Give the backbone structure.
Amino acid sequence: MRSIISGRAIARGRGVPGLAAVAGLALLASAALTGRAAAQGAEIRVSLDEKRLAYVSASGDTILSAPIAIGRGGLWELNGKVYDFRTPRGTRTVLAKNEDPDWIPPDWHYYERSVQRGLEPVQLKDGDRIQLSDNTVIEVRDKVVGRRVWIYDGREWRHSQFNPISQGFDIVGDGKLFIPPLDSPQRRVPNALGPFKLVLGDGYLIHGTHDYNENSIGLAASHGCIRMANADVEQLYEIVPVGTPVRIY
């Protein structure tokens, strides 16, 4: 197996002796190998049985190999709709790559959370104002979901300032889980995908891990995406060009 030294790893000084002296050479070697691999028709191979990903050149050289987490499997039905949490077999393509990506959860994430927490899911839309029993109001203003509080100033009740709700948190009140609009900032979850993602289409990604799921590598634990340790997905991100075939078997 060939070993790649990540350019970002070099820049960050991850335990490689004499980094200052070898950085330029290593970066050139990595870039050259990447170019050759792409020109020779390299592909990503994902073994679901072995829970392992390999980036392999057309000549059969393994450029990178790493353990992964895959879809946990099974079908889940709610409100007449069936969700499949298996990683699908077949051939896909790396359609795009992103650094420091936010996760935009699909609706099933909120439905699953509502079942887990015993809450009623409620889909929000722009312009909604929902009065809650704790004297707060959930409001969607220009796609931003926020809260207002009713305050009594001694003469009348009035609303406090509109405060956007922090990203990455469930919006809960009166036994309901409120689902932000798809294009709302509150729909974006930072850090959930780790530092990098490779887009495979139809909602499927190759991505890194968050602190809460870093121990999932080697398991059937995701909702269908291919999950890698952050150090491994960093190397893959740097050496795999957009357009690379991904064979999942």
Summary: Residues 9 and 231 are 8 Å apart (CA to CA). The mean pLDDT is 86. The chain has four helices and 22 strands.
